[in-house]
Amino acid sequence: MPSKAKTGKKLVIVESPAKSKTIAKYLGEGFIVEASIGHIRDLPQPSELPAELKKTSVGKFAVDIEHDFKPYYVVSADKKKKVTELKAALKDADELYLATDGDREGEAIAWHLLEVLKPKVPVYRMTFGEITKEAIQRAMGNLRDVDSALVDAQETRRVLDRLYGYEISPVLWRKVARGLSAGRVQSVVTRMVVDRERERMAFKAASYWDLTGQFGADSGSFKAKLAAVDGAKVATGRDFNDDGVLTSKNVAHLNEELATSLAAGLQDASFTVRSVDTKPYTRRPAAPFTTSTLQQEAGRKLRFSSKSTMQVAQRLYENGYITYMRTDSSALSDEAVTAARRQAAELYGPEYVPQSPRVYANKSANAQEAHEAIRPAGDSFRTPAQVAKQLSGDEFRLYELIWKRTVASQMGDAKGSTATIRLGAVAADGRDAEFSASGTVITFPGFLAAYEEGKDETRGDDDSDEARRLPNVAKGDALKASDIIAVGHETSPPPRYTEASLTAELEKKGIGRPSTYASTISTIQDRGYVRKQGSALVPSWIAFSVIRLLEQHFSDYVDYEFTADMEGDLDKIANGQAVGASWLRHFYFGEDSDPGLLSIVNNLGEIDAREINSIPITDEITLRVGKFGPYLESSAATVDPKTGEIVESARANVPEDLAPDELTAAKAIELMETAAPEERVLGTDPHTGHTVVAKNGRYGAYVTEVIPEMTEEQIANQPVEYYKNGKPKPPKKPVKAKPRTGSLFKSMTVESVTLDEALQLMSLPRVLGEDAEGNLITVQNGRFGPYLKKGTDSRSIGSEEEIFTITLEQALEIYSQPKQRGARAAVPPLAEFGPDPVSEKNIVVKEGRFGPYITDGITNITVPRATSLEELTREQAVELLAEKRAKGPAKRTATRKAPAKKKATAKK
Q: Rounded to whole angstroms, how far apart are CA atoms 325 and 408?
């Protein structure tokens, strides 16, 4: 067979179309750049396996657990066309370059392409940390083979997640609720949020008081705070534990009475300066961004979610503005260090650049040094002003943040001095009171001229030195006091995690990979385990049940150290120090006294679902996690104040927007006392004999009929069906009849609705008759109010009460009028949040066809189901709009008409 003729073409495959367009600009002639659009194949659902494999060792996970955990991959349906296109492009090429990302995921994509395309031409693995001409040229000079160790690590991770999820999730379905999921990292992250809420629930506040005053000298005045009484340090929030107990010894714990009397006794006291202490102040710049620190800082400064940050960063990378955005390394290349130092000197002056370049070491557990830090792309950096016109609002803000951080990282220390003045006097009652004031003066801003790192919320008192200049005073100087007042404080519970602080804690503990933090935090919100309250992450009650079950029966798999150690093992596989198949065998089957996951699942024993889904609030009130949400149940017999009846087990719904730590004993009692009756019997339907009841449901009050279940005798008396062989079939389980229901009108309540009204509500929709063409016209109630319906033509009517009074003639009159669109009076917005920081348009919440949505007049985003309008904040609205912008406009599939067939021309 003759060999294929040389074409001179070289096929380069990357992941994304945007990346392919950018890299194509820097490659010479003969290069064809195609995008695989992510992974081309993956593990299928076990139900999608061929029939002959379903009963084999592959059938449970689409992984052959008896033969080295070999995955069974399939090309996904939506990628078959792409694979065909890549194979066709490869036929015309003399060389293949796999230029997917340089991390484990990118290495795995390259390997899958190699396995599926089966190239018969030379294959080269090409990686680069930025998409610039210089980087591409360097990459072409450093070609290599696909790294089998990195592929093994990624494949091991993928199989591990399949084993974990498919073994543990079904336990959650049986004991907590259907549709829940467990994940190797997501479950541990959920536990962290739940643990923090548990700390807040157990927290007991302590009260303490101190004094503040204004003090004047000839050179100026300043504010100072009480520091000591009779030589003993005044107690602050840091001196109490979370049980509200004072733990520090030899401190003065002032209550309101002591503080108020001391303030009164100091009104006419003579204050003098007792000491002045001045120390040099030095502050170093923060390291360049890693994936984790970028997500944290974008959350603090730009109010971006982790997911939004990564979406915007992805676009900046693919279009050649920044280096690769998934990295654990804070190191800069020599070219980048030179560029940063040069730019700092040009913009701020040579005195702002230290003599030697700064070198940064990683602080996170399991850090990988394979990549460079996130920085502006190129051997010389473009300033934000130079790229402003080429970027969208969010892209510009993130690029500017990255540019500032990178340049600042190579600038000099900020220098100055911190002065502390201690002053005192003796009160009228003889107590000695000493006040303190501190201030920092920056004499050389250094890196602060370019950038200052943000901070997360912390506990306790803010004793940080203020950036203020204190007056020039000396020991023994007299001071004039004014406005000496007593100030009360309470200790604060541990702050809830934000996305930024949770990301920082995950990195600190070494849990998961920074490249997956954004998707993990997004997943636990999408699954309903966590919701946002402002920027704080609040766990749901169902998350408490899930974590409780996992802690009791799968303790290792939600243990922080165990999960971090597992991440370390996966790193060893990536480094070629371990083999994935052996590690998976130990994880799943176990060894000796170390049980594997399979053994733990097979020996779970009996799990008390009721106990797992119950959280005691008081001795008599328990929170239950039920099928339709959380509710309170009282074990004490109570008397219904309206009927006088004794209720053995009273219940009350828990408001969806009530955070777990807000459900105190007092709040639970209040909810029980104000709870509307769960169900009220209205009477019997005279036509069916069914009992009609009114209920308070999760989505509002409604009426329904109670359809009795068939008795065993009725089931036995059903007509007998027979198999083809003549044997009788067992009695069929009766199909449960669907009861008629009807939502109450706004003017009705469970306590006031009557049987006649209930029967009317359950009869809807009401048939009015037909028009002249025979079209049926009905009237009914809907989410947006009462309306008429004729085929697909709906018309609103005035009020709910008209549903039972409107006539066919009135309906025909309404339909005889042209349908009004947009003629109604403008509806005021449900909420307003002021101007958006990007579009500068006013942010409002409006009621839409599919529910409330947030808009700035340009971008629209539906309010998440887990977020009520009452708890929606400006920060959250800004963040949701930013996230929607980051996704870009929804892509529409173009429908192209087939070209008209040309008529055949008759041959002459």
A: 19
